[in-house]
Amino acid sequence: MANLGLAFAILGAALAACLAGAGSAIGVGVAGQAAAGVVTEDPNKFSKVLVLQLLPGTQGIYGLLIAFICLSQVGVIGTPVEVSFAKGLMYFCACLPMAIAGLVSAKFQGQASVASIGLVAKKPDQFGKAMIFPAMVETYAILALLISLLAIMGVSNINI
């Protein structure tokens, strides 16, 4: 029972990294399939479609960042600290926005990237406009990153 708080904090960190990473893998995977089809027809479009394919990968990075910060706050990385059950649950909850929004936004950003890759395939001069569509989905991943980051920092300042 003494380590239950720490276990919940580690679970939250793991979910942030794993779910956001899984979403990125899905998003980058579907975009990669579309990109490969375009490059098969026109290898000169490789760099443009590669950028569009990589966009859904950021959620995995954000989830990993949240996991590292959470693990450092609870002493898994760095100096060990006492984590009460209540505080462990708070860390768990603080990681959930990035975990859930990372999973969902990366999946949908991958779909937006597929559509943008199709646009670049037909009209390569519209690359700038094509980047806007998946970038709009990125906004929600960044908001989740900020909420999780602020919540983790807030929990670390609570004495219970």
List keywords for this structure.
5 helices; elongated; mainly alpha
3D architecture notes:
The chain is mainly α. The chain has one domain: lithium bound rotor ring of v- atpase (Four Helix Bundle (Hemerythrin (Met), subunit A), Up-down Bundle). Helix content is 82%, strand content 0%. The protein contains five helices and no strands. The longest helix is centred in the first third of the chain and has 38 residues. It starts with a helix and ends with a helix. The model has no long low-confidence stretch (mean pLDDT 96).
Give average pLDDT, whole number. Answer: 96
β-strand percent reads under 5%
Multimeric state? single chain
Q: What is the CATH level 1 assignment?
A: Mainly Alpha
Which class do the helix and strand fractions yield?
A: mainly alpha
DSSP helix fraction: over 70%
Rg over CA atoms, rounded to whole Å, is 19 Å
Full CATH superfamily name: lithium bound rotor ring of v- atpase
Unreliable segments of 5+ consecutive residues? none
Question: What summary fits the major beta sheet?
Answer: none
